[in-house]
């Protein structure tokens, strides 16, 4: 397989599009590969396949980029990874969590994939519950309630620890600043988050001014309506990409989740929450998380079909959103629970070819069955 980059960095924004170094529009067709954000501190699957082979699989499926979540606890504690979790990567046995994370980044970029690290959660655990200690980028205001107390400055320094060693890798294209900020009971003022996002963006761009800064919406990344009155402004222009997450249960402040909406109701929410940024040529949007189960119920299909239709129409109109499917993983780290959203089998080789990959093909995924 070719290792030629699928994206030609450095990237910047032009109106509602991400463009490459030659000014050609780029659509990020991403896959989420989680695990480093969770309780075992390591991207999943390294006990089953060598990281290079997983990277080759991701590229063979047609994805051009990977969203790679980590936890702040990983950065702070940086434990040595259990050897059993690296059974297929014996050269990494004895390595710390950060070293394994960096090795995975290198494996992905060596086959031409772009990588976006994502600060997913403070504590190393499954995201995202109602724990206020993980609801935003800092939690020191909660005192002794949190097992790991994190100030805003701690969060910024953790980003510096993660990104500094990656500054020389051109296919690390940016940073997704924080997953699904939501505050207490789902509330979060956009202006509060925007201020923090600008601080983080400036610190990260001081390491490498070529990076994109991905800023998720509030209400678990579903709502970017606040950008109209309070956009993210950085000292280096044309570096901000906004990010939304859309799931079947999403739809903050509404009685009906997206699993039960008509298409017109769903599309109206998408337009109000984030797609207006594309329609008005304000900024690019990356739908950094969306996905559904391999054995869907009626509501799952309703949501999925509506989202695929909406994203496909945006592409047809020249306003294409970038996107990131959640996730490739076949199992969750805790209790080895089956991941119904996953795209591969337990061996990290066999692919679950079903309606979801067919939907992603409609969004431009150049899928080739292996």
Automatic annotation (TrEMBL):
Family matches, as InterPro entries: GH, Glyco_hydro_5
Domain of life from the UniProt record: Eukaryota
SUPFAM superfamilies: (Trans)glycosidases (SSF51445)
Keyword Disulfide bond: no
TM regions (residue ranges): none
Keywords, comma-separated and alphabetical: Glycosidase, Hydrolase
GO function terms (MF aspect): hydrolase activity, hydrolyzing O-glycosyl compounds
Domain Glycoside hydrolase family per the UniProt entry, residue ranges: 20-330
Family stated for the protein in its record: Belongs to the glycosyl hydrolase 5 (cellulase A) family.
Name assigned to this protein: Glycoside hydrolase family 5 protein
